[in-house]
Amino acid sequence: MLAKISFVITVMALLNLASTDIGIRTKQSVGVKGYLMCDGKPAADVRVKLYDIDRVVSMDDKLDDGKTDARGYFELSGATREISTIDPKLYVYHDCNDGWKPCQRRFGIMIPDKFVTEGEIPSRFYDAGIIELAGEFSGETRDCIH
């Protein structure tokens, strides 16, 4: 069983490498913007990251990261090469209503495929709208190393 798993991983890795060398993977980009609030007030200086989530063998690709401004506004974009459509996900790391608990609260939002565009620069952005951080999010975790 272990030999079969190793074989599959090796084949996937070789296909990934070969697709890069012969240009099968297309350059795709994505952008996301929005506002973060904590108890109705702008959540400034909150860490946000944009990733391409890889569901098979390779590691997730970080496309961009940043922090919200004084208004709680953020805007991230990035590009990567993949054989299939990329799976972009926004991660938010915050301390809204967190008291003295260690680390930060972390949740993610998948960005719909229709906001993935061909090329280096996204032609449209996913508008996440106004996100209130005071509540608890589905799948929320704590993260100390980000």
TrEMBL record:
Keywords: Secreted, Signal. The lineage of its organism: Eukaryota, Metazoa, Ecdysozoa, Nematoda, Chromadorea. PANTHER family: TRANSTHYRETIN-LIKE FAMILY PROTEIN (PTHR21700:SF111), TRANSTHYRETIN-LIKE FAMILY PROTEIN-RELATED (PTHR21700). Transmembrane segments: none annotated. It is found in: Secreted. Residues 1-20 form the signal peptide. This is Transthyretin-like family domain-containing protein. It comes from Ditylenchus destructor. GO terms for cellular component: cell surface; extracellular region. It holds the Pfam family TTR-52.
